[in-house]
Design goal:
By secondary structure, the chain is of the alpha/beta class. It has a single domain (2-253), classed as Rossmann fold, CATH 3.40.50.300. The chain has helices at 43-50, 95-105, 111-123, 139-152, 169-186, 197-203, 237-253, and strands at residues 2-12, 15-26, 32-36, 58-63, 66-68, 80-83, 157-161, 189-193, 206-210, 216-221. Bound molecules: adenosine-5'-diphosphate (ADP) and magnesium ion.
Amino acid sequence: MSFKNICKVFDKGNDEIVVLDDISFFVREKEYLCIMGPSGCGKSTLLKIAGGIEAPTLGTIEWKGTEYKNGIPKQQLKNFGFVFQQHNLLEWRTVYKNLHLNLEIFNLKGEEWEKRIMEMLKLVGLEAYPNIYPHELSGGMRQRTGIARALVHNPDILLMDQPFGALDAITRKTLSYEMLNLWKKTQKTMLMITNSVEEALLVSQRIIIMNKQGKIVYEIDNTIPVEARNESIGSNEEFIKLRKKLDGIVHDIQK
Ligand SMILES: Nc1ncnc2c1ncn2[C@@H]1O[C@H](COP(=O)(O)OP(=O)(O)O)[C@@H](O)[C@H]1O
Ligand SMILES: [Mg+2]
């Protein structure tokens, strides 16, 4: 998937604000790509454009061999799975029924799909809780349910907007390890916004960094070997080097 010269302009009263300014980048198939940048720089807008929820003001998106000028058409939505910071689960539906919702939205019927609900719950460690309601779940379990729901219709790409941002530090860390495993198991393409350097270095293969003006200013290859991405990643030399570099960049782009 590639993005060419994407601009997004919003009307604000009599003014226009340029949120994304000539953004070009690509996402490789099966890649785990992280996006970082200061608050308000347009990360969420970019993710919505990537998933066809919003259309760019200018620019084209190449997706599965087709160039789209006015954004990704709505009928392609089934190819994407979204996870947001707030889990967005329906409180009156059980965990199982929350996953079922995506099957209803995309009109996927049959035993195979019903079976897939349980497979996805198993993947996120919630196979024992299909009949529980969201208010009975911990924050981490709710996010896991959201992740399972984003996967249930078997999309090509998972788009995640600070999925662990509302969790406590320990749960956040646990879930980021789980995401890495999930990526290995599912082989899905992952595009994730995060504000944590450590999280990005743990899970990603590449990190793109935006500045306040809505431009991509850095692209970093994450050269930490996958074997080293475990509890002792903190003492990995490559990790230490990259964290120092990224901490510096993240500090600079706040200006
Ligand atoms: N639908 C919208 N209408 C007008 N302005 C918007 C809209 N969505 C986002 N914005 C503005 O675009 C800018 C970038 O927002 P966003 O993409 O949410 O940034 P980020 O996720 O990096 O914090 C903000 O100034 C925000 O107020
Ligand atoms: Mg945002």
